[in-house]
Write a structure and sequence with these properties.
This protein is α/β, with parallel strands linked by helices. It is built from ten helices and four strands, in the order ααααααβαβααβαβ.
Length: 217
Amino acid sequence: MMKMRRIRLLIILFLSPGYLCLDPFTSGVGLGASIFASAIWNSRETISCMFKECCKEPYVRTNEGVLKKDLEENVFGQHIVKDTVVSSLRSHLKRKDPKKALVFSFHGTTGTGKNFVSEFIAANMFQNGMKSKYVHQFISTVHFPLLSETDKYKADLNAWVQGNISLCERSLFIFDEIDKLAPGIIDTIKPYLDYHQVINGVDYRKSVFVLISNTGG
């Protein structure tokens, strides 16, 4: 009789829900916490972009209407430039797979509005305008002043362009005073401006380059 009771006790223990697994409340809490943690992890980029600039809307945008208005109100005597900039930028930014990077080359003496146009392009492309971390401005006399350091400048520029476009394909690069650049430096970016879909794993076709020179005015 005692032996039978022991067997029954063992059977009850083995069949007890508490013995087999966690109770329903504990299981529900654990499963809910797991799902919540997974949702947070999958949404981490969206949450992060609520507090800092990201390479997506609303930080990266297209607003050619505002660009056209800004150019009309602030740049005078440059009708061809205004029309070309607006139409070219609109077409480039609306394409999911443009054939190549967009390049603007502005030439002219001081006071013709070249830098104004560059700033308006930045304001059109990014919510933070020239302050956006995806806008990269280089001034020849500041960033590349020494002829003896040309090789170093070329290597640094190559790494800088490649690194920043890998972070945001819609990056904007502004090169000011290119007429004062040492020979060969600007050639560093030529491969990124051509009809190459991917170079070293990076797609440069959505980027925009602005070259500004004080000659040819």
